[in-house]
Each structure stands twice: as structure tokens, then as C-alpha cells.
Amino acid sequence: MGGGGTLISVYPDDLTFVFELDKPCYCNLKVVNNSECHVAFKVKTTSPRKYFVRPNASVVQPWDSCTITITLQAQKEYPPEMQSKDKFLIQSTKVAASTDMDEIPPDTFNKEGDKLIEEMKLRVVYTLPSGSSEDSGVTSSGSRSFRQANDDLSMLKNASLEEGLKCRSKYTLSLVIKL
């Protein structure tokens, strides 16, 4: 299943990244030209410093396709509730057959005059690597959040600290009595 307009289709509908801390994550996106014309596309994101998109713009020949690799740079912490607010926009428009794939004119995606520019929005989805859900306290159905797991961990740390203080107090008391 893929989303699309009359010019192009995009597969898959969502950008799914297998999220791991301190490691870059990759997602491939296939852009298919559904027309008899040459079609230029451009990829935009709400978080350009977080993602590398290659190619971020190109021309697809009639009835041909192009694969885009999107890289989520290594992240230092998990996003809240493993949710992403990042979005991607893919614009597409017909161009002359002579348009160079590497030098698309800067005004190609300006919405002026009667030029038709199709737009598709894609959302970002984070998943955990297979086999890691049991280790992190998150069930495969996602019923527990990272925030809940962190809260549980904090409660355990606090309980251990309190127990340690109780033990230390007893030890100090018995040491004083023996003196």
C-alpha cells in the first residue's frame, strides 16, 4: 500500500525507523512516477538537522522509480513515549525531459501561475528492535511507556536508597552502643 497523487506514489505510507540509542537508523522510501511525463520531486522535513535525506530532490523518468534513503542521526535519548512529531513533505511536479536530475531549477516547486504541485505528507514512526521489548519493560503491544518504565526504575532506586540508609543507621547505632 502506498500513498500518492496522480504524478507519483510513495511506498511505504509512513517512515518507520527501528530506534536504537547512539546509532543511526535508516528508512528507504520508494517514489514511483505514475505518468508519461518526467516528474521532479523534493523532500522536506520539519526536523532537517535530525535527518539526512539522499537524494532530497531528483527527477524520475516516466513510469520509473527512485529509492530515497532517509537516515535518522544517532540520538542520545529515547523520545517521550516513543512518539515522533516529525513530519515529511514530498512535493512533485512535471518538468521538461531535458531537466538535469542534479540541477533542478530553484523555482521548480514555487506555487505560481497554473503550475501543478502535488504534496504528500508522511509521518514518522519509531519502533524498537525485535527482542528488545522485554528488556526495556515495554510490551510488544506498547501498553507500557518509557516514562512508566523510568518511573518504576526511580521508585526502585529510591527504595534501595532508603533501605541502605536504614541499614547504615542500625549499624551506626550498634557501633555507638558497643563503644
How would you sum up this structure, described in words?
With 179 residues, the chain is α+β, with helices and mostly antiparallel strands. The protein has 2 domains: 3-127, Sandwich (Immunoglobulin-like), CATH 2.60.40; 137-178. Helices cover 21% and strands 35% of the residues. The chain has helices spanning 133-136, 146-178; strands at 3-4, 8-11, 15-18, 25-33, 38-45, 51-54, 57-60, 65-72, 87-95, 118-127. β1 (3-4) and β2 (8-11) form a beta hairpin. The longest helix has 33 residues, at 146-178. It starts with a strand and ends with a helix.
Keywords:
five-stranded antiparallel sheet, Immunoglobulin-like, alpha+beta, five-stranded mixed sheet, 35% strand, 179 residues, 2 domains
